[in-house]
Structures are given as structure tokens and as C-alpha cells.
Amino acid sequence: MYYFEDFQAGASFELGSKRVTEEEMIAFARLYDPQPFHISPEEAKASPFGGLIASGWQTVVILNRLFVESIFNHTIGLGSPGVDEVRWLKPVRPGDTLKARCTVIESTPSRSRPEMGIVRFKCEMLNQADEVVLTLIGIDFLGRRSQE
């Protein structure tokens, strides 16, 4: 189990990887981001992307899952107030394998809630060519070790 104190500025974590299939991309986009270049391989060919691409929101969700499985489920997680600075830098294509890493950029004990601290992570998602496709700043509330 990890606690707030285990996440000091500069610490970096590899989060694993996920291969994205065309079927998953289309299914996600049909539900949540039904733009032609996300749901129709034929229409996507005529788009500025020249082919089908994943919804940027799907890449955020994949990063979240990798983060939760690799880090958050092994902490005293107390929630999150949100994310900052979401940037989609390159399109994700069918068959891409995405891997993620997060680095602690700030770790601050809460002044109002001494049982927790606030950790800010800079997270990156990379494709199989090690090109960064997504960056974001994640903010998490983590439980502290007993202060007794």
C-alpha cells in the first residue's frame, strides 16, 4: 500500500500499455464522441486525418484506467478534484499500442484535512513509436500515514 508520503516530486511511474482496436474506437465514439472520423472508416479517409482516429476522450479514459490499475488502487485514494491541461498531440490510430507514464510534479499536505495530501502528476501517453499522443496534469487526494 502506498501513501501520500510515498509520492515525492520527481518520482516517475510506468503504467503499462493497452492496444487500441478499431472496434473499440468505433464503439466508444458511437456512445460518446460520434464524429465521422471516429466512427466511419470510409468517411474518415476524406477527413484531415486521412483515416479513422480514436476520440481524444478515449485516450484520456485509457490513461485513467492504466493509472487506477497501476497506482490509485494501491493507495489510500480519497478522490480527485479533476485534471488540468489536457492536450492531444497526435492522433491515435487503430492498432496503436499506447503506454503511459506519470511523474509527480508536486506533493502538498492538506492544511484543512491533515489525514490527506494533494499530489499533482504530469502524465504522458505514448504510442508504439514513442511519440507523445496525450499529456495531462492529474490531481489526486491521497491518504497519509498515521500522524500519531
Automatic annotation (TrEMBL):
Annotated ranges, domain MaoC-like: 13-111
InterPro entries: HotDog_dom_sf, MaoC-like_dom, MCH/BMMD
Protein name: MaoC domain protein dehydratase
Transmembrane segments: none
Domain of life: Bacteria
Pfam families according to UniProt: MaoC_dehydratas (PF01575)
Species for this entry: Ktedonobacter racemifer DSM 44963
